[in-house]
Amino acid sequence: MRIALLLSACLFSLATQAAPLNVASLDRTTWPEQFTSPALFDVASRAEILMFAHALLTTETLDESTLKQRLGLKIINQAAIAELRRQLWKRLLENYNFAQQSCEQDASFCYLVENLEDLREQAGKFEVSDNSFYIGWAGPSRDFHERYLDELLRKAALFPQISSEVARFGEHERNGDELNDRMFLLTFDSGPTASGGPTDWLTDYLRKQKMNAIFFVLGNSLQTRVEKNPSTDVQALYQGQCVGIQGWQYRSHSHWVDWQSSITRSASLTQNLLPENYLPLFRPPYGQRRSDSQGFFQSQGLQVALWDIDSQDEPGLLKAQESANRVLTLMLLWRRGVILFHDSQDTAQAALLWLLHATAQSGLGWQDCRQAFR
């Protein structure tokens, strides 16, 4: 019986992962201004916050049957959805308050919002007039936020049977909430690649920009790299960067019998090979981990490192420019957070180049990886 239940859970998990996704991305050329100042970043931020808040408010009028149909699910966790909505409104209010501090410099999308009731009221009546300077952005943004909200609601609806980054299981799990306004942390999953691959390009590029990131490595990929290259070359690869772990293989750690061994083997290899770079952080593939794993992680001195800005740069999802557009839109919406790319993909290279260029004058900052998740 136990084996049958386990297989059933695994099949359910895999089916959910394999389900076709209408991944949200917004063409940033629809926004008529460049981010040549922090104030102009705030204008766009206020606009995205209000558009997302409008979409969120609209879903609250849906009954359970309609919401199930919209999310393509037969069973949904209403309590988890309610908690997600509460967290989203809290974050939206905080972010709008930050974004309206520059209203004296540019009053676009500035409304009197002092509390959550005010924000909900403004979100309910938010619309962009046909003769507005921003009308070309309004429709595509509305579509983006409806699709993006569905992504979040679907994950909440499946939680905790299928865990994800949308909610935490305890204080041992971190997602960047503690970052300051306009601060973002770059993270990369699924590496390292073979010598000369995307991992090499990204680490070299970041060093040249005097930036760093957390690279969450797979134990088997790191072992393969060490077997084919001197350990000193691998240490040079990650010079100036931080390294966490993703387990031995890129697979769900929520129903894998050997999940603990996967983590401890990877941690031992990484810490021994890269003691100057290693951070005691575990990034769960697909965001999936066990709800009862807190004791294990604490016994290993590990924290679970989640994220809140997903680039969706994996094969078959978004192209490089689409991924970059998505990340920038979510940076405007959330105003701080942990960005997830994959250094196993060429997509991340072009997306990162464009993203840094687009935000160079926007007044945002990049979190030092050594100070993250503290």
Explained architecture:
The radius of gyration is 21 Å and the shape is globular. Strands 1, 2, 3, 4, 5, 6, 7, 8 and 9 form a nine-stranded parallel sheet that branches. The protein contains 13 helices and nine strands. Helix content is 48%, strand content 10%. The chain is α/β, with parallel strands linked by helices and 374 residues long. The chain has helices at residues 2-18, 38-59, 64-71, 78-99, 116-124, 135-158, 198-208, 219-228, 231-237, 259-273, 294-299, 320-334, 347-358; strands spanning 173-174, 183-191, 214-217, 242-245, 278-282, 303-305, 309-310, 337-342, 365-366. β2 (183-191), α7 (198-208) and β3 (214-217) form a beta-alpha-beta unit. The model is unreliable at 1-20 (pLDDT under 50).
Overall pLDDT: 94
Order of helices and strands: HHHHHHEEHEHHEHEHEEHEHE
CATH fold annotation of the largest domain: TIM Barrel
Stretches where pLDDT falls below 50 for ≥5 residues?
Answer: 1-20
- Sketch the major β-sheet: 9 strands, parallel
Distance between the termini: 42 Å
Radius of gyration: 21 Å
CATH architecture of the largest domain: Alpha-Beta Barrel
What CATH first level of the largest domain would be assigned?
Alpha Beta
The CATH superfamily of the largest domain is known as Glycoside hydrolase/deacetylase
Integer count of domains: 2
What share of the residues does DSSP label as strand, in percent?
5-15%
The count of β-strands is 9
Helix content: 40-55%
Structural class: alpha/beta
* Shape annotation: globular
Keywords: Hydrolase, Metal-binding, Signal
Domain NodB homology: 182-369
Signal peptide: 1-18
GO molecular function: hydrolase activity, acting on carbon-nitrogen (but not peptide) bonds; metal ion binding
